[in-house]
Amino acid sequence: MQDPCRPGVEDAVRRCEIAGVKVRMVTGDNIQTARAIALECDILTLEADASESIIEGKAFRELLDSEREEIAEKISEMGLSSPNDKLLLVKALRKSGHVVAVIGDDTNDAPALHEADIRLAMGIQGTKVAKESSDIIILDDSFASVVKVSCCCIGFYPCN
Q1: Taking the mean position of all CA atoms in its chain, how far away is CA 152?
Q2: H/E stretch holding 79
Q3: How far apart are the C-alpha atoms of 106 and 28, rounded to whole Å?
Q4: Pairwise CA distance, residues 5 & 12, whole Å
Q5: pTM value?
């Protein structure tokens, strides 16, 4: 069982893609659940090569730094991950020259939030530590709002 995608997430992921922003999902869920969620939210497509787009946290963690940087480019989702796996992904992407935004809601997200270029926390379910580690707090805990605020700030589409 899984919760359905929240309203507006699919559209928000598409807007990110149009803007050249790749959305990656890092979750503690098992790979099958993570894949189903990523497919429903359009983070992953049926055509995507699952062997390159999906990885378990443990496998990612065990890679050499150089291998991690190469794989990080291709990852759409990481399942069975730990907070340290999220941090390793952020570090690998930044080392490859990417600007990285992290959305966190828990105390264990603080290290990845600190390492990110853009730090966002969820305002309702977010812990005090996640909020204090962030630059922006999303008041309604909605990914669609994250995208709307971000796209508005960079002029991708008009604020309303």
Answers
A1: 19
A2: strand 77-79
A3: 13
A4: 12
A5: 0.88
Residue 82: both structure tokens together: 């730990």
Place of tokens 């002029």: 155
> Tokens 């907070």 label which residue?
83
Q: What is the DSSP letter of 106?
A: S
Instruction: Report residue 107: phi and psi, to 5°.
Output: -55, -40
Say how far apart CA 27 and CA 103 lie, in whole Å. Answer: 12
The dihedral over CA atoms of 41, 106, 18, 36, expressed in degrees to the nearest 10, equals -20
The strand pair at 101-104 and 136-138 is best described as: unpaired
CA distance to 49, 56, 98, 144, per residue, from 72 (Å): 14, 12, 11, 24
> Consecutive 10-residue runs of the chain (160 residues): their mean pLDDT?
77 89 92 89 77 89 95 92 95 96 94 95 94 93 81 51
Q: How far apart are CA 137 and CA 80, in angstroms?
A: 26
Q: How far apart are CA 67 and CA 63, in angstroms?
A: 6
